[in-house]
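Renewal narrative, Specific Aim 1. Our central claim is that a sequence can be written position by position from structural information alone. The example that follows is taken directly from our test logs and has not been curated for this report. It begins with the C-alpha coordinates describing the chain, in the order in which they were read.
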Protein backbone atom coordinates (compact mmCIF):
# COMPACT_ATOMS: atom_id res chain seq x y z
CA UNK A 1 0.00 0.00 0.00
CA UNK A 2 1.61 3.27 -1.10
CA UNK A 3 0.92 6.75 0.19
CA UNK A 4 -0.63 7.82 -3.15
CA UNK A 5 -3.20 5.07 -3.57
CA UNK A 6 -5.08 2.63 -1.38
CA UNK A 7 -5.81 -0.92 -2.43
CA UNK A 8 -6.70 -3.71 0.00
CA UNK A 9 -9.16 -6.41 0.90
CA UNK A 10 -11.47 -4.85 3.47
CA UNK A 11 -14.78 -4.69 5.24
CA UNK A 12 -16.46 -1.38 4.34
CA UNK A 13 -19.08 -0.05 6.73
CA UNK A 14 -21.44 2.47 5.19
CA UNK A 15 -23.67 4.92 6.98
CA UNK A 16 -27.06 3.27 7.16
CA UNK A 17 -25.63 0.17 8.86
CA UNK A 18 -24.67 -1.67 5.69
CA UNK A 19 -21.47 -3.70 5.38
CA UNK A 20 -19.70 -4.90 2.26
CA UNK A 21 -16.59 -7.01 1.92
CA UNK A 22 -14.30 -7.16 -1.07
CA UNK A 23 -11.39 -5.52 -2.83
CA UNK A 24 -11.23 -1.79 -2.04
CA UNK A 25 -9.36 0.91 -3.89
CA UNK A 26 -9.47 4.60 -4.71
CA UNK A 27 -10.99 5.65 -8.04
CA UNK A 28 -10.97 9.02 -9.79
CA UNK A 29 -14.11 9.98 -11.73
CA UNK A 30 -14.51 13.44 -13.17
CA UNK A 31 -11.81 14.82 -10.92
CA UNK A 32 -13.46 13.50 -7.74
CA UNK A 33 -12.15 10.69 -5.57
CA UNK A 34 -14.43 7.74 -4.84
CA UNK A 35 -13.97 4.48 -2.96
CA UNK A 36 -14.43 1.52 -5.29
CA UNK A 37 -15.57 -1.73 -3.73
CA UNK A 38 -15.38 -4.88 -5.87
CA UNK A 39 -18.01 -6.81 -3.95
CA UNK A 40 -17.50 -10.55 -3.51
CA UNK A 41 -20.38 -12.73 -4.66
CA UNK A 42 -21.80 -14.43 -1.54
CA UNK A 43 -22.92 -17.50 -3.52
CA UNK A 44 -19.98 -18.33 -5.80
CA UNK A 45 -16.33 -17.46 -6.44
CA UNK A 46 -15.64 -14.06 -7.92
CA UNK A 47 -17.16 -10.62 -7.76
CA UNK A 48 -20.82 -9.79 -8.16
CA UNK A 49 -20.41 -6.07 -8.86
CA UNK A 50 -18.24 -3.01 -8.45
CA UNK A 51 -19.72 -0.10 -6.52
CA UNK A 52 -18.42 3.45 -6.11
CA UNK A 53 -18.99 5.38 -2.88
CA UNK A 54 -18.26 8.91 -1.85
CA UNK A 55 -15.81 8.93 1.07
CA UNK A 56 -18.47 10.79 3.09
CA UNK A 57 -20.77 7.74 2.84
CA UNK A 58 -18.25 5.51 4.61
CA UNK A 59 -18.10 5.09 8.35
CA UNK A 60 -15.18 2.67 8.56
CA UNK A 61 -12.81 0.62 6.40
CA UNK A 62 -11.22 -2.39 8.09
CA UNK A 63 -8.43 -4.01 6.07
CA UNK A 64 -8.46 -7.83 6.20
CA UNK A 65 -6.57 -10.58 4.44
CA UNK A 66 -7.95 -12.03 1.21
CA UNK A 67 -8.53 -15.29 3.08
CA UNK A 68 -10.68 -13.58 5.71
CA UNK A 69 -12.59 -11.63 3.03
CA UNK A 70 -13.45 -14.80 1.14
CA UNK A 71 -14.56 -16.60 4.33
CA UNK A 72 -16.77 -13.68 5.43
CA UNK A 73 -18.31 -12.85 2.03
CA UNK A 74 -21.74 -13.84 3.37
CA UNK A 75 -22.09 -10.34 4.86
CA UNK A 76 -22.71 -9.13 1.29
CA UNK A 77 -26.18 -10.69 1.39
CA UNK A 78 -28.67 -7.88 1.91
CA UNK A 79 -31.74 -8.41 4.04
CA UNK A 80 -35.08 -7.92 2.33
CA UNK A 81 -37.07 -4.81 3.13
CA UNK A 82 -39.50 -5.34 5.98
CA UNK A 83 -42.75 -3.43 6.36
CA UNK A 84 -43.60 -2.08 9.79
CA UNK A 85 -47.28 -2.61 10.55
CA UNK A 86 -48.93 -0.89 13.49
CA UNK A 87 -52.24 -2.10 14.91
CA UNK A 88 -55.03 0.19 13.68
CA UNK A 89 -55.90 1.05 17.29
CA UNK A 90 -52.60 2.98 17.53
CA UNK A 91 -53.17 5.11 14.42
CA UNK A 92 -55.19 8.33 14.46
CA UNK A 93 -56.72 8.64 10.94
CA UNK A 94 -57.22 12.39 11.40
CA UNK A 95 -53.44 12.93 11.72
CA UNK A 96 -52.54 10.99 8.55
CA UNK A 97 -51.14 12.82 5.52
CA UNK A 98 -53.61 13.64 2.74
CA UNK A 99 -54.03 10.77 0.31
CA UNK A 100 -52.73 8.14 2.75
CA UNK A 101 -55.18 5.35 3.40
CA UNK A 102 -55.06 3.03 6.37
CA UNK A 103 -55.58 -0.66 5.62
CA UNK A 104 -58.21 -2.36 7.69
CA UNK A 105 -56.90 -5.32 9.69
CA UNK A 106 -58.59 -7.75 7.25
CA UNK A 107 -56.90 -6.07 4.26
CA UNK A 108 -53.52 -6.27 6.00
CA UNK A 109 -53.96 -9.99 6.64
CA UNK A 110 -54.75 -10.56 2.95
CA UNK A 111 -51.66 -8.54 1.94
CA UNK A 112 -49.47 -10.50 4.36
CA UNK A 113 -50.48 -13.75 2.66
CA UNK A 114 -48.76 -12.70 -0.60
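The sequence written for that structure reads:
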Amino acid sequence: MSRDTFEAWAVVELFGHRQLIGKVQEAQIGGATFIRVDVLDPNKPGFVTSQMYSPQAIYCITPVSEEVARKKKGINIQSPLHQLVLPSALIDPERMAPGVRMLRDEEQQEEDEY
